[in-house]
Amino acid sequence: MSSVGRSAKAARRVPLSPLLRLLVLTQLAFNIGFFAVLPFLSEHLGQSVGMAGWLVGFVLGLRTFSQQGLFVVGGALADRYGIRPVVLAGCVLRIAGFGWLGFAERTWAVVGAVLLIGFAAALFSPAVESEVARQAVVWEAEGGGDRTRVLALFTVAGQAGAFVGPLLGALLLAVGFRTACLAGAGVFVLVLAGHAWLLPQRIPGRAQVRVAGGARLLLRNRRFLALCCAYGAYLLAYNQLYLALPAEVERAAGSQAPLAWLFALSSVLVVSAQLPVTRWAGERLAPRRSMAAGLVLIAVGFAVVAVARPAGWTGAGGLVPAAGFVVLLTLGQMLVAPVARAWVPDLAEEGRLGLYTGALSSVSGLIVLAGSSVTGLLLDAGLPGAVPWLALAAVPVVAAAVLPRGRTGDLSARPQS
After folding, report:
1. From 415's CA, which of 16, 38, 91, 174 has a CA 20 to 30 Å away?
2. Quick check: 16 pLDDT over 50?
3. Where does the Major facilitator superfamily (MFS) profile domain lie (predicted)?
4. What value does the CA radius of gyration of the chain take, rounded to a whole number of Å?
């Protein structure tokens, strides 16, 4: 029997632990509750609350900062106190935030509710993600298969939630935005109850460490910072679904209506193909090569639009390059995202996986913030249409070159606590 056959047979013999199944379902529920509300927030703030456009953008930016920017805080707290209290506290804050948002009619109330909603995710997301990564290493060590398969399943669950959530929210908006908020809060009430009942008080193998000194070690970890830079470049590229792609669709179709179909195409691809792609890559590619291949695919996606721009195609034909970009970006995402998350346990200091998982998101978020500002300037500078897309194509290529070399340590070694 081949090594691949033995690996597949072993993977069938080792099911996911109850804790892993709970955490994967957690990601599904988190995203259903979140995306039932947030996609409709900007319209609610502009039309129902009457905020100016700049203020709506400011509020949405605050939400992103209070979430992505503070992931490192939530991760450090998870290392110090364990994931159970941090996850439960995050659920309580999310319930309070959604409830408050549903009744908020003044700017200060909206800002307070949005900050609560963002900080809630900064608590529970890095706690859950770090424990999924740690448990994936345990599953791999027990012969279950490559850890990236667990992270891929986690990605699929999140994408499925992001697909179902807006559909649920759209139905609830027929009653009102407040109803959508209360329904989102209700989802997190169920998550809170489930975790209070099922999440263990202490998880074997997970030690609690002091917060002090962790940041200093992290900033000296050049290989981890290289991974952050590469992952940030990927997220910057992915963010073009919301920045460069709408502008291209507007040019080609005369409106942004086709965007919904392109977003649906991306979601369907992830849900249907993520696990097979991860399985295929895990059997053939080392982590660095998998991430590099994904980044190159993303670069090709940008190049497809850049090459087509001088032709100036419009209508249905003009949307073909945009669709090609979405497909290649999504395929690249399938190769990059699970591997990056699975790589972190090998680069993190002992006992600080939560801190490193949170830092991966926070550092990458800062890269996206800076890079998106530059991208916006390029798109508004009146340059030839191909130039911004060629510049964006160069970003993942550079990122592939700075990836750290190999994984740290023996994969059969004991997992990080």
Report:
1. 91
2. yes
3. 1-411
4. 21
In 203-212, which positions are buried (b, 16+ CB within 10 angstroms) versus exposed (e)? beebeebeee
Q: Where are the domains of the chain?
A: 1-208, 211-417
Query: Which stretch of 95-99, 105-109, 183-187, 225-229 has the lowest confidence by average pLDDT?
Result: 105-109
3-state secondary structure of 406: coil
Tokens 């991430």 sit on residue: 291
Least confident segment among 5-9, 184-188, 278-282, 387-391? 5-9
The total of other beta-carbon atoms located within 10 Å of residue 381's CB is 9
Least confident stretch, 71-75, 197-201, 214-218, 344-348: 214-218
Backbone region of residue 205 per phi and psi (left: phi > 0; alpha: psi in -120 to 50; beta: other values): left
Q: Which residues contact 169 (CB under 8 A, 6 or more apart)?
A: 35, 36, 37, 39, 40, 180, 183, 184
Give the helix/strand (H/E) hosting 278: helix 259-284
CA dist 197 and 189 (Å) reads: 12
Compute the C-alpha angle 384/390/392, nearest 5°: 115
pTM above 0.85, yes or no: no
140: left (phi over 0), alpha (psi -120 to 50) or beta: alpha
Q: Give the confidence band of 209 by pLDDT, cuts at 50, 70, 90.
A: low
Residue found under tokens 């329904």: 183
* Rounded distance between C-alpha atoms, residue 215 and residue 223, angstroms: 15
Count of Cβ atoms closer than 10 Å to residue 88 Cβ:
18
The domain 1-208 having CATH identifier 1.20.1250.20: the answer here is: yes
- Please tell me which residue, 257 or 356, carries the higher pLDDT value: 356
The answer to whether the 1-208 and 211-417 domains have the same CATH topology is yes
**CA–CA separation, 392 and 303 (whole Å):** 9
Distance CA 303, CA 307 (A): 6
